[in-house]
Design brief:
The chain is of the alpha/beta class. The protein contains eleven helices and eleven strands. The strands form two sheets. A six-stranded mixed sheet has the order 8-7-6-9-11-10, with helices on both faces. A five-stranded mixed sheet has the order 3-2-1-4-5, with helices on both faces. Strand 6 and strand 7 form a beta hairpin.
C-alpha cells in the first residue's frame, strides 16, 4: 500500500510518502517539506498566532492534496512539541481538521522517543543489542534505551535546538558567555535522565537521529547524502568538540553556506551542537552512529504492525497515552 506520514514539527511540515507492505521495508517515494518555524509563531503566552495557524492550515492542505494525488491509502498525521505545548492547540487542531479534512494527532514527547526507538531498532536489527537512541528536534530532545522493540526508558526534555536558540541567545553569533550558560543549563536538565539511563547499563550501540545530528556528522567528515542512506556515518565526541568550537564563531548566514547544513536550520545549529556535546558527555558516549530512520518511519512501522496484527499491544500498555496513530480511522483524509 502507499502511505503518507505528515510530521508537523517546530521547524517544518514534512510529508513523507512510502510504498509499504506488511513485513516489508518501507520504500520512500516522495518527500515534501514546508519550512514554517511554528515555534517562532508563538506569542509571549505560548499560543500559536493567527498568522501561524493560517500558515499551518495552508501547509496541511497542500500536503493532503499531494498525498491524495500520489494515491496514498492513508495519511498518518501528527504534531510534536510546538503544538503540544501551545495553550490554544485544541482550537488550532480543530480548525486544521475542519478546513483540511486531516486530523492531526499530538504526540506526547515520550511517544516520540518510543516511535523513534522502534525505527532505529528495525534499521539496525536485533544484533544491535542494547540500544541508546538520541534525537534533537526543534523543540525537544528525546532519549530512549532498551533491548527490545519498545524501549525500557523513554524520555523527552525541552532541549530542542530551536527552543534553546530563542531562549538563550541574544545575537548571531552568540557570545561565549551565553553558550557557556546554555551548556550549564543543558547539563543540569540532563543529569537526572542520565542517571536513569545509566541503570540500563552501557549500550552496545549508541545512535543519533534527526537533521541536527546528520548535519553535525557531515561537518565532521561523514558521507554526504548522495552516498545513500546505507552509508555508515558516525559522529565522534572529539569531532563534535572541534566542530562546535568552529561553528560557534560563525553567523547563521555563513553556516548556511556549509555543506550539509540546511539554510532554514542554520540559525539553531550552535545550540544543537551544545545539546549534542553535553548529552554525549553526560551519557559517556564517545561515538554515535547516525540512523536515517527516525520518528516518521517509526509511525509507519507501527501502523504496519497494527495492520498485520502481529503487535496488538498499543503504547498505552507501556504506561503512556495512546496516540491513535495505528487506528485506521485516525488521521485519514476524506474524499
Amino acid at each position: 500500500m502507499r502511505l503518507g506520514v505528515l510530521d508537523v514539527g517546530s521547524n517544518t511540515v514534512h510529508l513523507l510518502i512510502v510504498d509499504a507492505h506488511r513485513g516489508g521495508h518501507p520504500t520512500p517515494m516522495a518527500s515534501e517539506k514546508t519550512a514554517l518555524r511554528l515555534a517562532e509563531s508563538l506569542d509571549s503566552s505560548g499560543r500559536l498566532s493567527r498568522a501561524g495557524a493560517d500558515a499551518l492550515v495552508r501547509a496541511v492542505r497542500t500536503a493532503r492534496s499531494s498525498a491524495k494525488a500520489a494515491g496514498c491509502r492513508d495519511v498518518l498525521a501528527f504534531a510534536t512539541s510546538a503544538l503540544r505545548e501551545a495553550p490554544n492547540s485544541a482550537a488550532v487542531l480543530s480548525r486544521v481538521h475542519a478546513e483540511t479534512g486531516l486530523a492531526l494527532q499530538v504526540l506526547p514527547g515520550e511517544d516520540e522517543a518510543r516511535y523513534t526507538f522502534l525505527a532505529v531498532r528495525r534499521w539496525f536489527g536485533w544484533s544491535a543489542g542494547q540500544l541508546l537512541v538520541l534525537d534533537i528536534g526543534g523543540g525537544s530532545l528525546e532519549l530512549a534505551a532498551g533491548l527490545d522493540e519498545l524501549p525500557a526508558v523513554a524520555e523527552s526534555l525541552p532541549l530542542g535546538a530551536g527552543r534553546l536558540t530563542r531562549e538563550w541567545f541574544s545575537s548571531d553569533p552568540p557570545p561565549r558567555r551565553e553558550i557557556d550558560a546554555l551548556r550549564a543549563h543543558v547539563e543540569a536538565e540532563l543529569a537526572p535522565v542520565a542517571a536513569r539511563l545509566a541503570e540500563e547499563g552501557p549500550p552496545d550501540r549508541a545512535v543519533g537521529t534527526s537533521k541536527t545530528f546528520r548535519s553535525l556528522a557531515r561537518l565532521t567528515g561523514a558521507a554526504p547524502s548522495s552516498a545513500g542512506p546505507r552509508a555508515r556515518r558516525v559522529l565522534t565526541d572529539a569531532g563534535l568538540r572541534q566542530v562546535g568550537a568552529f561553528i560557534s564563531r560563525m553567523s547563521a548566514a555563513d553556516l548556511a553556506e556549509l555543506e550539509g547544513v540546511s539554510p532554514s536550520r542554520a540559525h539553531q545549529l550552535v545550540a544543537g551542537a551544545v545539546v549534542a556535546e553535553a548529552t554525549m558527555r553526560a551519557l559517556g558516549i564517545h561515538q554515535l552512529e547516525i540512523c536515517p530512520w527516525a520518528l516518521r518511519e517509526g509511525v509507519i512501522l507501527r501502523r504496519l504492525d497494527w495492520l498485520d496484527g502481529a503487535t496488538r499491544s498499543d503504547l498505552s500498555s507501556q504506561g503512556t497515552t495512546a496516540t491513535g496513530l495505528v487506528a485506521p480511522q485516525e488521521a485519514r483524509y476524506t474524499g
